[in-house]
Write a structure and sequence with these properties.
CATH topology: Arc Repressor Mutant, subunit A
CATH class: Mainly Alpha
Radius of gyration: 15 Å
Largest sheet: 2 strands, antiparallel
Order of helices and strands: HHHHEEHH
Oligomer: single chain
Length: 118
């Protein structure tokens, strides 16, 4: 089982626990970015989030949600389900330039364009 990542704590990608390396390791874990993306607009229960993520296994979803809650990116509210915290929303907005870059890349390589959801 993968350990919960925290800045300042050594991880697979950083023996010093540098925050950027720990964050990149967290976001690079299976389905982590997909979960972040699927929570961008509204809360979701575990089951709804599982469906939005393309029938992700409950084990992986639970593991990622635990990690993201520990990192302060996601929170759980009993009546509405999982939502992004203000820090999670800030992280998603910080990633926006990557989407812009990816769309330009797509145009250069395939000539396609996608609607912007963020």
């Amino acid at each position: 089982m993968e350990k919960i990542l925290q800045p300042g704590t050594p991880s697979q990608s950083s023996k010093t626990g540098r925050p950027i390396m720990v964050l990149l390791e967290l976001l690079g874990r299976k389905q982590a970015l997909r979960i972040l993306w699927e929570l961008r607009d509204e809360a979701a229960t575990f089951r709804v989030l599982q469906d939005r993520c393309g029938a992700i296994s409950p084990t992986i979803l639970n593991r990622r949600l635990t990690e993201m809650r520990s990192a302060g990116i996601v929170q759980h509210e009993t009546k509405i389900g999982y939502t992004l915290t203000p820090e999670g929303t800030d992280l998603l907005l910080t990633l926006r330039p990557l989407r812009t870059w990816a769309e330009k890349w797509d145009k250069r390589t395939q000539g396609k364009s996608f609607n912007s959801d963020i």
